[in-house]
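Quick one: structure tokens for this chain, please?
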Amino acid sequence: MEGRQRPMSHEIADFETDVTERSRSLPVLVDFWAEWCGPCRLLGPVLERLAEESAGRWALAKVDTERHPELAQRYGIMSIPNVKLFVDGEVADEFVGALPEPEVRRWLERALPSPHAEALAEARAMLARGEYSPAAERLRAVLAAEPRNAGARVALGEALLHLAPETVAETVSAVLDDPQVGEKAEALETLARVVGLAGRPSELPEHGARARMTAAAQSIHSGDYGPALEALVDVLGQDREYAGGIAREAGRAIFVLLGMHHPIAERHHRAFAGALHA
């Protein structure tokens, strides 16, 4: 028909092949759209441009909901444009509406799997084994290639807590507001301040709790969180507000760093909570 706009590119031929199976080796961004949809016409060129810029990091596929109503129903499409990221055959993340290009870019940075996920997983395994120096080396390499990788930045902060705690705050400052890792970044800042006291115990107030607080700081520095929590419970038992409540802050930071399902957290949480509220 004269004056009719051409359909957008990247249209699927077979959803299982073009999206589900392909996403097992490459993330696939699926744009559910329709020709009559004005916002879809705004978002479509943005996605196409970003796909071209990605240099093969992810693929774009478009599903015309008028031609494929069964797919719209299968994936619960109530409003378009609806953009879903498929990874390993499943929807990993999504957004609805014609977001401005800067917001789409930020969403992609957060939602796309890191191309360095394997290296990051290896570094985290090193951290769990207490191999802090090789972990830091691996994480610096990841960040050199992917400076905005928030997970790698926090993991590096964790390694530096045991290697160079004075550098932790600068390392994690850029991700303090990140919704995924910001809380852990704050915990690392807190623990780095506590570790700094291990070498300067005279800065702690004169009190019977000072020796145990110093022991807790030393244990945190070496990565021995069980003994650290035991020492913090002792400090809380003597004075919950000692040094401005430092034992309370340090203990909570350890639980955030480890996660509440970590065996050490599960073993010590009841005693810590009891001392905190006694």
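The first strand starts at residue 28 and ends at 33.
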